[in-house]
Amino acid sequence: MKTLIMSFLAAAAFAAPTYGQAPEWWGTKLQSELSRLGHRNWIAVVDSAYPSQTAPGIKLIYTGEKQLDVVRYVLDAVGKAKHVRGSVFVDAELPYVPETSAKGITDYRAGLKEVLKGQQVKSLPHGKIIERLDAAGQAFHVLVLKTDLTLPYTSVFIRLDCGYWSDDAEDQLREAMEAAKGATQ
Fold it and tell me: Whole-prediction pTM value?
């Protein structure tokens, strides 16, 4: 009996993911998917009430984890990838959700601020971000990682961009093409 209990405790300790170690299957799945994802793909880390979307490119994975842990893990994985970089979007509604209506939201916002430290974060209304994901899911892959969080407007959306080609480089390329086109006319 003692051996059985010790085996159970050892298995439970091994199964509990900690930051810096690969989580259970969803972390392995993320790593596998990330190697296939590129610019125009999205990764969303969402709360427990987030809907299962029907666009063909959207894949939902239930993590069973705390949201801030998943956000931290995803940002770390994207940050280590050489082929992509992430642009972070959050719901514009988040700063306005009152603690009286959503107990714990103040602590969540503080935790999210810490997790997103050093990231450029854009804020858009939730509905607009969902429209972007739905549109992207028609032609590109969107990976949705669902967590156990039960607070509204807490989803974090990461649009993947090319890791080795900047927005400035793209703008300069387009300007050069326009200038060349104008010179030949």
Answer: 0.82
